[in-house]
Amino acid sequence: MKIKTISRSSDQYVPVRNTQESSLPRNLNPALHPFERAREYTKALTATKLERMFAQPFVGQLGDGHRDGVYCIAKNFNTTNQVASGSGDGIIKYWNMTSRDESVTFKAHYGMVTGLVVTPTQSRMLSCGDDKYIKLWSVNHEEFDHTFGEDEVYNNKNKGLVKTFLGEHAFKGIDHHHQDDVFVTGGLSIQLWDINRSKHISDLSWGADNINTVKFNKTETNIIASSGSDNSIVLYDIRTNTAIQKVVTSLRTNCLSWNPMEAFNFVSGSDDHNAYLWDMRNLNKSINVYKDHVAGIMDVDFSPTGEELVTGSYDKTIRIFRTREGHSRDIYHTKRMQRIFCVKYTTDARYILSGSDDTNIRIWRANSSERASIKSTRQRNKMEYDNALKERFKHMPEIKRISKHRHVPKVIKKAEEIKRIEINSLKKRQENDRKHSKQGSKPYVPERQKHIRGTAIKEDN
Amino acid sequence: MAPPAKMGSIDRPGTEKFERSASVIAKKKKGKYSKDKKLNANLRKIDHQYKEALRSAAGTDLLLTEDVGFLEADSAMEKTFKFKQNDIEEVLDEQTVNKKFELNLPKLGPYQIDYSRNGRDLLLGGIKGHVASIDWRKGSMNCELFLNETVHAVKYLHNNQYFAVAQKKYTYIYDNQGTELHRLKQHVDSTLLDFLPYHFLLTTAGNTGFLKYHDVSTGQLVSELRTKLGPTQALKQNPWNAVMHLGHSNGTVSLWAPNMSTPLAKILSARGPITDLAIDREGKYMVVSGADKSMKVWDLRKLKELDHYYTPTPAKSLDISDTGLISVSWGPHITVWKDIFKSKQSEPYMNHLIPSSKVERAKFVPFEDILGVGHSKGFSSLVIPGAGEANYDALEINPYESVKQRQQGEVRSLMNKLSPDTISLDPNVIGTVDKRASSIRLKPGQITEISDMSEKDQDKLNKMEIRPDVSAKNSALRRHLRKKTQNVIDQRRLRIERNLKLEKELRVKKYRQDRGLPEEKDLLGPALARFK
Lengths: 461, 532
Known about the structure:
By secondary structure, chain A is α+β, with helices and mostly antiparallel strands. Chain A is built from 6 helices and 30 strands. Chain B contains 9 helices and 29 strands.
């Protein structure tokens, strides 16, 4: 007789001392794990509910904000916690986000601050305004007397002012090169400046209209994109000192942002409520259309990962889009927040800053249910597991309903409804038109080309 | 050294055990799943992940610490069923011998028994009112009750802290100390109890012929199903899909889910009443014994009979162990069969006799090589080598859990409690695409909600046109109005009513025309007709 029975020694399974971890043997045989699918579904449902429960996007505001609407925010790409902002009364402020307090304040311009950028090499602020000035500001306390009070700011003592450039026209936008001491301004013309010279070094203008936004590509550093009031988006190369190509859209483009990971892609926010993703190699069609806003998009910014983008709109809401999807994954709004003129991801991709008409700069979580606290390995594993489950069961009706549910202001909801009806009736009219005209004479235009009026490539002179 | 291969590119032996039938994505030709590029890439990714998961799961087999027990004969002359428990005891290690014990309780028997899910605790229920909860390995008593009332069945709930007892009239729930917590007054005259641990459902059946599901986490009676087949003889759950199997006195076994008022399936298994049934842990096989001394093995996937055995007297109690051993109790005997699902066996694996007694209930202890037997003179436990699952999963059921682990596990399992309406014959149906036609899949209200009309609906609409040639009774418009909900007035209804009126006018006109009657004069005259 050969015999053996299970005899586990309890020493092996029961901890001897109470400081000892008890052993947790695993057996992955599916027979020991019944209802695998149903249990995972339940877990996914619970995780989705918890995510919505913990969704608190608003973190707070920076200091006391400005005294006038905030119209530009600039990131310092060398740090994760410093930003600059400029407002309608010509004041620029430099903020420390950790303490949520301003470190310096300057009265920079008469009238509006139209453009602001933090220089990459020395972390100085470069601002431009309607008063035809470009000013370079130091943000280091040691370099100037910073003891003046808030009222003295308005007397413009020029403390901290490093350099002033005088232009020929009012400036509408400014951006700095990623490494070199070169910056570009937009206005009546688009000009390239060297920070060490007082006059601009070249004029890149192609076409006569105003330029509103200029943006250097941060990866392919010599490429500039600009958008103008003639509804055009123009690309320039500063190596050849010329414009490259342009696309004219049906409505004005208010803002641009380059994808930090895919150097050839950029996104534009348009007055037609949509944002468009472009491939600079082919401007005949946009790669993606981001719909959901019910008013013009005033600012757009890519997340540093390039996976998501944030848009701020004239409809007083902020929306976050995944780059590869066409509709927003989240909408942020508060009762007090007015028209939004600038939104920026922080450089650590965890927060979003928004500047609006109501003079405040607000900090939002990029992921509304995420918390910044340090997480244990178990916590992180659980979160990863939950995310995988949510992804897996995202199409289930109940999970879909819960995860998509957002409270939206009544005004927006109403506007959405009206917009839907409008679009539907337009579509219906076009369809009727098509039905009653010669076959093929009214072709379908893809949604990604509808907004494009034409493109042009600059020929060599 | 060879360069490291791409993850998942090398096959590993033993992956079959971990394969999930529902997860296999059918590849079309040339390694493509779909014409859609994006979908194809996604599916390829999913398939790759699945294969990688299988591979890594198969790799963990090396880490299993324990081996399954066995009992083998040395020569062809020896037979395993000839070995007595005393013979086995002599050669076994002391630890296993200690697990074998007997309780002599001649007065209040016969005894029903139940083990907690991790096999640590034993619940005894004597028919004359003796209930005891015992930690049988330590030999310590949790509680002992003398109820002075008939006890038909006992059942532990999700852990050893609570147990249910089916008494003379009602079913009661007690806690570990023996305090009566609940009297379930909805469960009258129940004689059989079972508990679905993942759904937290206590199921009872008995003389009333009702199958009742009671959610023990919320205290709600989930559903009561009328079997219409008289007193229920046997009640067991299918541990794989939580479908309840009921044995009836007309020889049928019926399969029930709480959200269906009719049985999911009915199987005629015996020519007399069913005495007991048992289902294996993967829900593939069922063993049914009848009062006609038959014992049949069924394949639950095909609902087909596999094999047919006879017991010398009708079997009273059946149980299937985790490894697939079957214990059959008939009179004072217990026979254990092995490999019964693989092929027809000519001789049993083991035999045991409890003299001058009658076995009431025999159950295998989870994760142990022990069979517990409740009989008319008390309780005895037998060593059955190779009966238990050797390697338990501590995150699922842990026989060595501490109090803290038990408490946390309880909270976790309550968080993941499954909804009763997820119970169906295929437990993996959740999250898959419902391929049935929308007319079958959706309820009548949901169908009308779907705005985009299919071609069929369009045809139907076209059929509802004005037809003055048919009689009023057969008008499609009229029939439609009749079938529609009366009190809902929508655009469509208004349109139909208008058409109906027009149809009637035309019909009258046609009628007059056919008879050669003069046309009725328009009262208002053609000039004012536009203001009508």
